[in-house]
Amino acid sequence: MDADNVTGPRLKALLGALQGVPTRILAAGARENLSAVAWPDAVALFPREGWQRADVALATAYAPTRDPLVIVSGDGDFALLAARHPGPVLVVSEAASARLRAVAPVVDPIQDGVGPLAAWIRAVTGG
């Protein structure tokens, strides 16, 4: 989750949709953006200041698996990661780049509601 690129209300909506779903959640961004969200205890937080530092932290922590991947960012820098991920990918963003839109479905939990997000989670987890 890129807390510098996706707003707090969207992050909170996603966290709500993920409740009860086994996940590994990583969040990076400026301290003020991270502190705007009440993160569950299990979330790994990477406070990073400066241009692209949050992106680098998230990309470095990424481990390719066949498990579903939710990219919470609109930054096109994640498009190659999404395209190469061996499992299903969803992007959560209010303004995803064209490069991300070309490789994965995009959901905005504020504009679209959490229904499409929950449907995708059910579809990829069998739940």
Would you mind describing this structure in some detail?
The protein is α/β, with parallel strands linked by helices. The chain has one domain (8-125). 37% of the residues lie in helices and 13% in strands. The chain is built from six helices and five strands; from the N terminus they run αβαβαβαβαβα. It has a three-stranded parallel beta sheet. A two-stranded parallel sheet has the order 1-2. Helix 4 (79-84) links the parallel strand 3 (69-71) and strand 4 (89-92). It is globular and about 35 Å long. It starts with 7 loop residues before the first helix and ends with a helix.
Features:
three-stranded parallel sheet, about 130 residues, alpha/beta, two-stranded parallel sheet
Give a brief rundown of this model:
This protein has 127 residues and is α/β, with parallel strands linked by helices. The protein contains six helices and five strands.
